[in-house]
Amino acid sequence: MRRKHMKVCLSVCILLLFQQWACADWPEFRGPGGMGLASSPGDANKVGIALRWSETENVTWKTAIPHRGWSTPVVMEGKVWLTTATPEGHDFFVICIDADTGQILLSKKLFGCENPEPLGNDVNCYASPSPTIEPGRVYIHFGSYGTACLDTSDGKVVWQRADLPCRHYRGPGSSPILFKDLLILTMDGVDVQYMTALDKKTGQTVWKTDRTADWDDLDSDGKPRSEGDLRKAYSTPLIVEAGGRIQMLTAGAKAAYSYDPLTGEELWKVHHRAYSGASRPVFGHGLAYINTGFPSPELWAVRVDGKGNVTDTHVVWKTRQAVPQIPSPLLIDDMLFMVSDTGAVTCLDALTGGEIWREHLAGRFTASPLYADERIYCFSQDGQTIVLKAGQQYELLATNTLESGFMASPAVSGKALLLRTKTHLYRIEDR
Question: What are the extents of the domains in the chain?
Fold first, then answer.
């Protein structure tokens, strides 16, 4: 009876999130509600996105995207917006594409940098943060390299800032989110770690909150012993209604937090030992599901009704088996699905953390999986999309291949999948 009640509550929460973003097709990283759901679990009304495709099947259009970017496209009012940057990080662009035809309507340089910090790896790039969009405005973010608000009707810049400090060290990764009149940014770098909210109309800072992790990499003078990754994170926050209040769940280095998104007040936190976490949290059953990060990621289920340091009191379960370092999980009813960077796909009991099944997919995975119509879509770095049944038993439904690999997570517009590979943007739909 308890599980049935929790399923009803979770379905209501997801429905409310979808209603909140009813005006948009895909408004932010991981879509309406921010948890990778293109349809509400248990909903009899199917989205109708394609099960199978290839370079010659079910491709409505294919558009080459210049330079390099791993950001997820956002979609509204018949337009697709995404970001890209030169591979060396000197020039940063926004691109707008007609959702029906694939024609590039706008390609505009927003920022430049003479001496960007080298990435040092191929996993990230200078255009990894995804835009976020609302009627009339799209918000573009490149971390400390620049943030801008554009008018979606003509692409003109409404405001822009390039004065928010943060040494990303290996490139920016956290995507911006909107809440009421605020644009909220995550700045977890080598040197500084903080959350900040800007007035979405003017770009002016409304609040700024420093991270309060217990750093263990300090010398006797309170300075970091050496430069490196130990204070960085790439995760995007998630706003939920929980515990009788609005909370913003966010994973940082050495700790995960809940904040009041209107004020930036820290509500609670849990301490851990990891860093460079990239997965976005998901929420349901009164639990925040949080990935701790590198080098040995764990998934923690944390009750969200606490206050202060709740590390010893509110962690319901943990697991370290086949936990991804980068892709975010999916919560479907009382099942939690994960796809690890190396291809392990796992179904867990969301209430207990117990493993229901685990299988292995070919390839490596950076993009976060997508749920639609009782299916799970997994996107590999070599261009394969493996489609699985979202159920208590493993069932492979289809394997689809495009020419270039996936680093960006997918977007959905009506019945169409918008898939960004390393070189192109595709509109995929059952024709």
Answer: 2-213+227-428
Give the mean model confidence (pLDDT) for residues 352-374.
Answer: 97
pTM assigned to the model: 0.93
**How far apart, in whole angstroms, are the C-alpha atoms of residue 49 and residue 65?**
23
One-letter amino acid for residue 305 of the chain: D
Query: 115 near 102, Cβ under 8 Å?
Result: no
Do 216 and 262 touch, CB atoms closer than 8 A?
no
Q: What is the CATH number of domain 2-213+227-428?
A: 2.130.10.10
Region class of 304: left (phi > 0), else alpha (psi between -120 and 50), else beta = alpha
For 361-405, strand residue ranges (E) read 370-372, 375-379, 384-389, 396-401
**Closest by CA position to 87, among listed 66, 107, 104, 73:** 66
Tokens of 350: 């969301």
Coil, helix or strand at residue 2: helix
Amino acid at 299: L
Whether residue 234 has pLDDT greater than 90: yes
Number of CB atoms found within 10 A of residue 222's CB: 7
- pLDDT, one tens digit per residue, over 301-340 is 999 999 999 999 999 999 999 999 999 999 999 999 999 9
